[in-house]
């Protein structure tokens, strides 16, 4: 039986991953790490409310004994300066990853990145550069397994709603277009359920590459 950590469980992707973990027969415990309490009651679920995502040293002992971390915390770059976006997308991620690696040498660490991420770290698009640096530095840390998820278009299932206003608008009024895209190019669109299942399967059986695009996520989810 496996024990996993999920971050960003109040968001669309994170909640999808959380629900799949709670339902999975090979997972005995899910620790949701976040700044706000989740209104979910489940015998497998534990919650760690932590306000400062730049420093986890004071809760280090509560982050020991886990097999995987599914890092789904993220934010849109719209309206943010580079230093603001970097703090949330890079500094928060690496702060937790480093503490987890100290305590869990056999851990799988999965990071939700994005389609268009810039692995060269030198392109013009700010969010893509920072996501690229985050991916690169996570892969260098030395986890037993680390996978970077670049899902692209995501369909929320199981009643999940995006917290981002622009995304909610798109899903409410243009889901028909997303479904057309999926029909024409089935390997370009994934669901929150598929992301969750793929993350679990990556922990259980690994995957042939570290960076997963939509088609890889779909394959791994089966």
TrEMBL record:
Source organism, top-level taxon: Bacteria
GO cellular component annotations of the record: membrane
Places the protein is found: Membrane
Domain NAD-dependent epimerase/dehydratase: 4-112
Signal peptide range in chain numbering: none
The name this protein goes by in its record: NAD-dependent epimerase/dehydratase family protein
Organism, as annotated: Maribellus comscasis
